[in-house]
Design a protein that fits this description.
328 residues; C1-like_sf
Length: 328
């Protein structure tokens, strides 16, 4: 007897940590005979229990619920769902469950969920602000859940998506959650474009580059459909990152303690490299080996362009080939 549905996570004041509900039957190999931490009776492998993943602590559901007030469960009301969402922090959320906000796999991240409806959100997605002002648009944007689950179009990157987005209904302007985290950070000389540009890992509409006037993959074999762009969303101005005046060397003390030098691709660094991908040493993300990278020749540290230019202005003064880098 107790609250239904049972809270997936409860706070046990005696133990001082969150306890997680486990309802599946444990196999003989994964079950050692334990005693309930509350009543000290033997535990049965088929009984639902509350347990602490950080410590060897578990208790009968009845023992925990008897001393539980329902307001002690970690829960939230969310505009996207008509039931309470409970915080779930356990290893079961890596079994292919999709976050309905960002459309990414839940993985092992903490989530808010409604088990009865199979409705789950990453904790970080569930806690997104309901409204924000973004430099891509002149009006405040409101977080919408798109409960119809129809595809919507992101005005920043061109992607079609079904998840949450920040929208201006009056202007029919939409930002998917990934693009809502991007900020303009790259400034070229005014003769190229007056506004600060934003680095996009991918544009799904493959727009024409205002530098080389071509769309990938027509320009170069190394410039594939996933080519990085710098883009002014307000003006629909686009350039391949490789068509911008990139500095030969950059010093980014927050990334690496040596100066890094630009290389055309990863193969130029290691002659015997035969993989199609490499790993950026800064963000540990897999990248295409044909992409342009920065490299430290002293210790073979490799960093991709997205990490290098995450907080950099590129300024080329007219009449000189010198490039000045300003960290913002």
């Amino acid at each position: 007897c107790g609250p239904r549905p049972l809270p997936p996570t409860v706070l046990d004041k005696q133990h001082g940590h969150l306890l997680t509900l486990r309802t599946e039957t444990l196999s003989e190999n994964n079950f050692d005979q334990h005693h309930c931490a509350v009543c000290n009776e033997d535990m049965n492998q088929e009984d639902p229990t509350y347990y602490c993943a950080d410590f060897d602590y578990q208790a009968h559901v009845r023992c925990v619920i008897n001393g539980l007030r329902i307001d002690e469960a970690v829960k939230m009301n969310h505009f996207s769902h008509h039931h309470l969402l409970f915080l779930i922090e356990n290893e079961r959320n890596n079994d292919g469950i999709i976050c309905l906000a960002c459309e990414e796999n839940i993985g092992t991240n903490p989530i808010y969920g409604c088990d009865g409806c199979k409705f789950y959100l990453h904790k970080s997605c569930a806690e997104l602000p309901k409204e924000k002002q973004h430099p891509f648009h002149r009006h405040p944007l409101t977080l919408l859940d798109h409960s119809s689950r129809k595809h919507h179009h992101c005005n920043a990157c061109g992607k079609h998506y079904k998840g949450f987005s920040y929208c201006c209904k009056g202007c029919s302007f939409n930002l998917d959650l990934d693009c809502s985290l991007l900020l303009p950070s790259i400034k070229l000389e005014s003769s190229v474009h007056d506004h600060t540009l934003t680095l996009f890992k991918k544009l799904y509409d493959t727009p024409t580059c205002h530098g080389c006037k071509l769309i990938p993959p027509n320009r170069d074999t190394s410039l594939n459909l996933d080519a990085f762009y710098v883009r002014c969303v307000k003006c629909n101005f686009n350039r391949h990152l490789l068509c911008c005046p990139l500095p030969k060397t950059i010093q980014r003390d927050d990334i690496h303690y040596h100066r890094v030098t630009i290389k055309d691709n990863f193969d130029d660094i290691f002659d015997d490299f035969d993989d199609d991908e490499y790993c950026c040493d800064a963000c540990e993300t897999r990248r295409q080996a044909g992409e342009c990278v920065y490299h430290c020749e002293k210790c073979h540290f490799v960093v991709d362009l997205q990490c290098v230019f995450s907080e950099v202005y590129i300024i080329q003064w007219r009449g000189t080939s010198r490039l000045f880098i300003q960290i913002i």
